[in-house]
Design brief:
The chain is an alpha+beta fold. It is built from one helix and two strands. The protein has a two-stranded antiparallel ribbon. Belongs to the gas vesicle GvpA family.
């Protein structure tokens, strides 16, 4: 059986470690969004929109608070 004959394993049946999943997500970045609405008697009183960008720090993507690169 050659590599071309083997079909990739379906994602639902594939075992993926949480660390590997987080590594893949953070290498490209993840955007989380959400809305919180506080209401009384079907009247919206407060609406909060939340957005967060989560990305790993690397040489290609340095931290904004890190030290300045030397000469």
């Amino acid at each position: 059986m050659t590599a071309a004959d083997r079909a990739p394993e379906p994602l639902a049946e594939r075992q993926v470690a949480l660390v590997d999943l987080l590594d893949r997500l953070l290498s490209g970045g993840v955007v989380l969004t959400g809305d919180v609405v506080l209401s009384i008697a079907d009247i919206d009183l407060v609406r909060i929109s939340l957005r967060a960008l989560i990305v790993s720090v690397s040489e290609r993507n340095p931290a904004p608070w890190g030290p300045e690169p030397g000469p």
